[in-house]
Amino acid sequence: MLTLGIDIGGTKIALGLVSPTGELLAQSRIPTGIPAGFDNAMSRLHHAIDALLATSSEPLAAIGIGSPGPFDKGGAIREVPTLHTWKGQSPLRSIQERYQLPAIMENDADAALLGERGSAPPKTPSAPAMLAFGTGVGGRRACERRASPGRGRRTSGTRPHSP
Fold first, then answer.
1. Residue 141 pLDDT more than 60?
2. Is residue 135 packed enough to be buried (19+ CB in 10 Å), middle (13-18) or exposed (0-12)?
3. Which of 11, 52, 71, 130 measures 20 to 30 Å from 150, CA to CA?
């Protein structure tokens, strides 16, 4: 069964279809289109997902979403400068309702750091940091192969985001 990864950014949304062994099988990219609003972006994202899924006959098991934060447990975007027209909207809920599959949404810098930590050789130092440069700048640190705890929901341990 396959996994779909979605990386939401201020200017683009990247998608990747991944095999159980971690091989990238297909990928796509669409503009985020912030001025057009959340509903427009989700419609285009659903079409991009459908097109990516059509490239494989293997079923999809789960979906992972990385997004700038903060957002709440239900994935509703809070105050994110690069996603300002999405405030109060949930990409996670939109994906879950459409595809009826297990889905998770994590801070994009957290997801990147944890992905790197999961693929690192065992003797790699256990407290790395990640700086994420995109439309904005964010960061994350980890301790013992886990994202480090902090104070805020879905922003804990994250360095401030700058547009």
1. no
2. middle
3. 11
